[in-house]
Amino acid sequence: MGIDEIYKSMMENSENSELCFPHLHNASCWKPKQSESGSILNYIVLSVISLLTVFLNLLVIISISHFKQLHTSTNLLLLSLAVSDFFVGLLMCFHIMFADGCWFLGDIVCLIYQYLAYIITSSSVGTMVLISVDRYVAICDPLLYSTKITLRRVRICIVLSWLYSSAFQSINLSDNLKQPGMFNSCVGECIVIINYIAGLADLVLTFIVPITVIVVLYMRVFVVAVSHARAMRSRFAGVTSVKAKKSELKAARTLGVVVVVFLLCICPYYCVTLVGVDTLLSVSSSAIVIFMVYLNSCLNPMIYAFFYPWFRKSVKLIVTLKLLCATFNLVLVFPHKTINK
Questions:
Q1: N or C terminus of the chain: which is more exposed, having fewer CB within 10 Å?
Q2: Where is this protein localized, as stated in its record (predicted)?
Q3: Is residue 105 part of a domain?
Q4: Residue 318: Cβ within 10 Å count
Q5: Whole-angstrom Cα distance, residue 318 to residue 38?
Q6: Can you give the pLDDT of all 341 residues of the chain as single tens digits?
């Protein structure tokens, strides 16, 4: 390429983009110019999803935490998932600020943002595995469910899942944690680089193995569920055991929807890691796949609202401020014992 062509290319680039930090000149990153209407629409959509994600998951957290009738093994897992989704909604605020392609909050905040995003994604996958195990035992071994799946064991598993995610991602991002921003090529960039070995380990341990476990367990659950459904047709509708089976099947179907939606939203993110020898993840360049992860966190509470009557009742109490009453007859609100179904 000749000097004239290089100069022409530079002029065209400067006309279509501008510096993130004009006072830094060549040290600053370039950001592409966007139409004003497109930028406004982008900010509005992301802001609405962020607010909805935080608000809806906060309703789930308050509902399960406040009402003792909702303190079941399954709901504790939903609570852990809601906490993850709640933090995803908060992290979207950073993504919104980075929507124009420039990072203005410094290398340390960038690293914290990316680090938390990795931990939350990993812990969400772990929670999905626990949900699959919970439904597997409930459907395939219902007589021993109450002895195998206890509140204490579920709490321990949730804590271990979060601790494992934090420890594993600390190792996974060790190079980035030593020196924040060491892989940035210019000021205004926010990226983390994972080498081949760490990227492969992350792909296997936080995606391939957990997803395989989830799929296998739920295939088994639905096979048993079909046989239960056929068996129930030959029995009386008023039998208690039949009602219990129907309740478990309904819970399995609802959580199955949650798992399927999760897989559809999370798979594109991990497919990106299969590209290239070194995995380069940039918020700006991976906007679509990261947006899918964010969208999943907003969809989960909507699924609960659609399938779970207890969630709709508790939301009504929270929104109407009846939750603030010192003594409230919760038996009238949640009359059934198996309110997690």
A1: N
A2: Cell membrane
A3: yes
A4: 16
A5: 36
A6: 443 443 334 434 444 457 777 777 777 777 767 667 767 887 888 889 999 999 999 999 998 988 888 889 989 999 999 999 999 999 888 877 776 778 888 888 888 888 998 899 889 989 989 998 998 888 888 888 888 899 999 999 999 999 999 999 988 888 888 888 777 778 878 888 777 788 788 888 888 898 889 888 888 887 877 776 666 556 544 444 444 455 566 666 777 788 888 888 877 777 765 554 444 444 444 567 777 878 888 888 888 877 788 888 888 888 887 776 644 444 444 554 444 44
Residues 126, 14 within the same domain: no
Tell me the residue range of the domain where 176 lies. Answer: 39-333
Q: For the chain, how many structural domains are there in total?
A: 2
Q: How many CB atoms lie within 10 A of CB 55?
A: 13
Do 3 and 98 lie in a common domain?
no
In this prediction the pTM is: 0.80
339 found inside a domain = no
Q: Are residues 73 and 132 in the same domain?
A: yes
| Distance from C-alpha of 234 to C-alpha of 223, rounded to nearest angstrom | 18
